[in-house]
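Hey,

Quick one before I head out. I ran the complex with zinc ion overnight. Inputs first:
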Amino acid sequence: MLVAPSILSADFGRLSEEIKAICEAGCDLVHVDVMDGHFVPNLTIGPVVVNAVARATTKPLDVHLMVENNTFFVDLFAPLKPKYISFHIEEEKHPHRLIQKIRDYGISPAITLNPHTPPSTIEYLLEDLDMVLLMSVNPGFGGQKFIPSVIEKSARLKEMILRQNAKTLIEVDGGVNNHNVKALRDAGVDIVVAGNYVFGASDYKSAIDSLK
Ligand code: DX5
Ligand code: ZN
């Protein structure tokens, strides 16, 4: 299992130290939550802070957009060269076009599904996607309770990926901890995002190890 700690739960007063600590503790990606105060009822960070995050690590960045104007934010974050940019399918009229735009920047495109959104919405996009991000909480805040239906949803998505012979990875985000990670792995999940579980632990390395 690959682990992407969400810096939303980090101590922002010591952000570069926190990022160095999760990287030394063996994280695989650094998950960056971008919220615009419109798509979700919370506001986080823009390219100035994400640039500082990028400078504090050699690990790939996983940018999760929770915004209304996806194209604007893709153009804003692309110069920082994250590994992934994911956008919410619920907020995009032309997902196929946006996937190509992200790929043209040399970035891996990913789509995020809210808890209520079925995997069938992306059936005809799968072969163009490097990753699908399944939300296991309603987006907007760290530290929420895991919604268990994502386990069955991950298994359905995995079947769809195998049926299409696609290489798309599955990532799950929200309320992930040492109790639900095994069921996610069994359902075919490749990457878990963990905010509170990692940054709330006294020892980041043992928290990350327990998810792996
Ligand atoms: C929620 C964010 C998540 C969140 C995860 O909108 O997308 O990445 O920070 O935090 P935990 O693991 O605490 O649920
Ligand atoms: Zn996220």
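The pocket of zinc ion (ligand 2) is lined by residues 6, 31, 33, 64, 173, 193 (CB under 6 Å).

Talk tomorrow,
K.
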